[in-house]
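DM from R.C. (forwarded with permission)

"hey, sorry to bug you on a friday — could you get me a structure for this? deadline for the figure draft is monday and I only need the backbone to look sensible"
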Amino acid sequence: MKKVEYSLIIDDNSVYFKKYLNLIKTTVDNDNEKYKTEEKRVRGVMSEESDKSVINEGEDYLAYMELEISETEQLMYRSFVISTYVFMEAKITSLCVYAEGYFEQIFSHKDISGRGVGRSIKYIEKVFGENFPSTQPFKFKFEIAQKIRNALVHNEGIIKDEDKPKVNEFIRKYPGVLEINSTGEIKITYNYAKDMVSLNKDICKEISRMWKC
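My reply, with the result:
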């Protein structure tokens, strides 16, 4: 493989993803500070009011503001998680494409049963003769990332019933990283988004290691 092609495959783009995530976190923190300031002002006004309708309007205003901030936060974190996953998926597919040419395979990853990244992983394992990702904890984290991505893209962020046991197992193992509400909707936290950056870096390291084998 040409040096430039190899470097493109293993480049994890960590600097870009960290900058992107820091921008999101800064925006979220600023919005929360604005809310606290506005809440203090509104509650100060409400404390001097005896009219219940005015007090109720104040509560509604704060509730709407808080909801809007929360929804915007989730929109940004969800887009980040999806973007990072798509990047990893593209790297894995690139490894398949270059392996096809390098090893002069008579079949491609598209000939493997299944679809998406699952099919690419089957191809990598068949061609290289080892598990991908290589360790069970690593594989588990990547499987969870797949389930989260699928829920965000195909099911409005709601985890499918068949995926809940695995996701709940992840939540137990890594407390404070993910949350699921009573309807099964996933809440992406800053910590999970940060974990996605680490997972992406590990995937690219894994690709580099396998190619050097």
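R.C.: lifesaver. The helical segments are 3-10, 14-47, 52-102, 116-128, 136-154, 164-173, 190-212.
me: no worries. The longest strand covers residues 178-180.
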